[in-house]
């Protein structure tokens, strides 16, 4: 699979005829005779090739006047893997749109974050995706509205504003146009789930992914490194607090064979699309395991590891600045010690939250809050105190920005320029916080131990040279190498 697949008509037709779910999210099929658009795996009888046209996004289908299929629900497919494996302008823009920037700051805000003019942004997105930033954000609002309509009993006016619409009329018109049903008809057709409808109630959602999905290392890593008060593993679910643009939330994520069960409690429902986007990013749910595993299998050393447990994802983060702080706390100490250091900061400087269903007590402290901490109160070596205080000062004053729109090589270089930041710290932030799929950790003790056991070079320079054939998926190779150890990060908690 590759960029611009929708232009390869013959390949798209083959995917539609085979109902191959691996292609869901890579392109969308618009049917000229019915005026609807579908995912490639739609279970209905495929239309004739001459009646199919292909688009790169749901927004492009909607722009062209097509309605979403009521059978396969193409608006609920996993997101395109392209946006998480590329670092160019389009990918960075798509990650920001998914994070709700257009809804909160408009297209000028999106352009300002990316350092381009609004005209350049619109031209680039239109050329590659067939829709501009407003249309892409509108498609996301429509999907959020559908979720709220079908899973809550909220009044429609509240649904409209929670989904990001400026008026109830715009909400009604958009829902009718995109789904060919009124909001009321959507709710009537939805299965009765009994979900809470109050603003403080829970929303039960299904987060789709491309199979195979191996939950062991993702949930194992999150549970083993969980910061008390902010994260916990409870009754088969990973739970954590979320700091969001309009308020805060608590999420519970439970792996199942064909989806991730997501339960969200939000203080402000306007944060729903952002919360979903961040949870998907945390679990790397938009990855393309067929492409990743297929490439890594070409190496005879990695092939048995991939075949043993295919579909490993990269455990990421819901807050890039938080992870950078935790990476510094974890320098040259055990996992347990890093958790202890982080828990002390959380208790002293995090914002308290209520959690009637578990033991979560705080949001992780902001860089601004940590920038006021007296270094003398930090129970760690002086050099690491200096590293931490320098990091949070740069994050707080904006001279260092970590986010979904980060330029991976440039940000890594800025991190390495900070005192106390060596290759391991910069690389682990690139891998887990920035989302670089090619980030590699040749100096990591676990990676070097795995390399020796597999007969690979164990010195950083030699291992980096040997890993060149794993590009552009070295972050996933790291997961398979880590999995050769019996550390708790590699096992789904019992």
Give a quick rundown of the structure.
This protein is of the alpha+beta class. The chain is built from 23 helices and nine strands.
Spatial arrangement of strands, main beta sheet: 5-9-8-7-6
Strand content: 5-15%
Describe the sheet with the most strands.
5 strands, antiparallel
On the 0-100 scale, what is the average pLDDT? 92
* Ends apart, CA distance between termini: 36 Å
Number of helices: 23
Q: State the share of residues found in helices, binned by percent.
A: 40-55%
Task: Tell me the number of strands.
Answer: 9
Radius of gyration: 23 Å
Structural class: alpha+beta
Unreliable parts: 194-200
Quaternary assembly: single chain
Question: What overall form do the CA principal axes indicate?
Answer: globular
